[in-house]
Amino acid sequence: MDDPALASLSLTHVHYNPNDPISYLCAWLALVPQGLCVVYVTLIWSTREIEILLMFAGQMGCEALNFLLKRWIKEERPRQMNGKGYGMPSSHAQYATFFSLSLSLFLLFRHTPHPTTTHTPTTRAERILLSILALCGAGAVAASRIYLNYHTPRQVLVGCLAGAVSAILWFAFVEILRRTGWIAWGLDTQLARMLRMRDLVVGEDLVDAGWVRWEERRRRKRDVRGDEVGRKGR
Q1: Average pLDDT of the residues in 15-23
Q2: What is the pLDDT of residue 229?
């Protein structure tokens, strides 16, 4: 019996021109959605922030929408490309646009960090700059799909539009959940308490989370060492 032909894991398999530096860069940009999934899961596990969990839920909903749209429209990819599956709309463009726009909406309209004794939060100008960088990153991912001939410009534009509409609608939906008290209710459930879910990132920076406790612990250790040195010197 002949051995079966080997298959390629298309999730990370990217065609590019090895003699073209831009093509090589675009191949790395094609892995941005997978990298962002790792970032999502890592942040959810380490911070237990409900805002990040909800953003990831919206991201997965956007992916489900792309899956349905591709099978409804059934438009093929460019002829120069041997990629599998339909091409309308571009899932990479839709994914990156949803992420960048959701992050921008959060930073500009929901994130209101307050200064503490140990940390000065990012200014609005800095948050605007971060938003611009995120949107530029999404644009680079979208452009890379055209450069690598995985999608036509129209497929990428529709993907960006679908991602943007999904991000705005999901942001509005989460805002309604907040204002009507559903998120507060959910955080009071036994499951949320067991998982230690919290809602702090809206009012404080992630970099400040736990910093006060850490500084207090360091201060106590220094005090203990100082007492020990004082006793030895007597």
Answers
A1: 85
A2: 60
